[in-house]
Specification:
By secondary structure, the chain is α+β, with helices and mostly antiparallel strands. It is about 30% helix and about 25% strand. It has 3 domains: about 70 residues, 2-Layer Sandwich (Alpha-Beta Plaits), CATH 3.30.70.330; about 70 residues, RRM (RNA recognition motif) domain (Alpha-Beta Plaits); about 60 residues. It comes from Microctonus aethiopoides.
Length: about 270
């Protein structure tokens, strides 16, 4: 069912009267008896004392308006007048929230790119030759069995940017078109070390814990070796005193220590 146009609504409004009785309207015959001619009656859904009467023409409406004002019901006036114009109800337009898209981060100028979809037969020299201005090609551990991946370092950063923006066509090697992407690996940040004194070892930048432990182990081993050599010297000295008579000057070849033997004491 088509909704009426605004012109049709205005025409019907001009041919309509608002009628109010002194009592509740029970049926439409009470209204028809008050007016003459062809009329259309619109009652509210709930029982009420008022209604709207639509006439065929505006002239019929004006004639009936004069006549109905002269009539009485139980010595009470009948209220009849043109209906009030209802204010137009405008549907609130749901304003769409205008969201400003966040700007895309600019691609950082980099010399290092990630290249995939490399044929298993393709060599590093072939990739260097195809890409041009390529400094090094390092193949990664194969995640996919069919193709290889590599980290490519360019000597010219502008060449790397051109490949990322697809300003240069991606080369085809051994039947596979290379796929070039930015290197998204997390770069390790160098944290400067703290300089402190740990008794025997001075911890400085770049000195790792393993190196400190190795230094301590070396010193402890040197101490043990020194004690071991001293014990050997004492044993050798004891043997020399017991076996020799008189003063001799021997040199131990192993420890390079002069062993001076003392003349055995005369028997009492």
């Amino acid at each position: 069912m088509k909704s009426p146009n605004s012109s049709e609504v205005d025409d019907e409004h001009n041919r309509t009267l608002y009628v109010r009785l002194p009592h509740t309207i029970h049926n439409m015959d009470e209204i028809r008896d008050l007016f003459a001619g062809d009329i259309q009656i619109k009652l509210p859904r709930q029982s009420s004392r008022h209604c709207h009467v639509i006439f065929s023409t505006v002239e019929e409406k004006m004639k009936n308006l004069k006549e109905v004002r002269k009539k009485r019901i139980n010595d009470k006036h009948i209220i009849a007048c043109p209906p009030k114009v209802k204010p137009e109800i405008y549907k609130k337009k749901i304003e769409k929230k205008t969201t400003i898209p966040s700007p895309k981060p600019e691609q950082k100028i980099t010399r290092i790119l990630y290249v995939t979809n490399i044929n298993q037969k393709t060599k590093a020299n072939a990739i260097k030759k195809a890409l041009g201005s390529c400094k090094s090609v390092t193949f990664l551990d194969n995640i996919e069995k069919d193709v290889k991946q590599a980290i490519v370092r360019f000597s010219d950063p502008q060449r790397a940017v051109e490949y990322l923006k697809k300003e240069r066509p991606w080369p085809v090697l051994d039947g596979n078109q290379l796929v070039i992407k930015p290197d998204t690996r997390k770069q390790k940040k160098k944290i400067p070390g703290l300089k402190m004194w740990d008794g025997d070892v001075e911890i400085t930048d770049g000195l790792k814990l393993d190196e400190i432990n190795n230094t301590k182990d070396t010193k402890e081993a040197a101490k043990k070796k020194k004690i071991h050599v001293q014990n050997d010297v004492n044993i050798q000295l004891h043997l020399s005193i017991s076996e020799t008579s008189g003063l001799t000057d021997d040199i131990c070849a192993d420890c390079h220590i002069n062993i001076i033997t003392v003349k055995r004491a005369t028997q009492q």
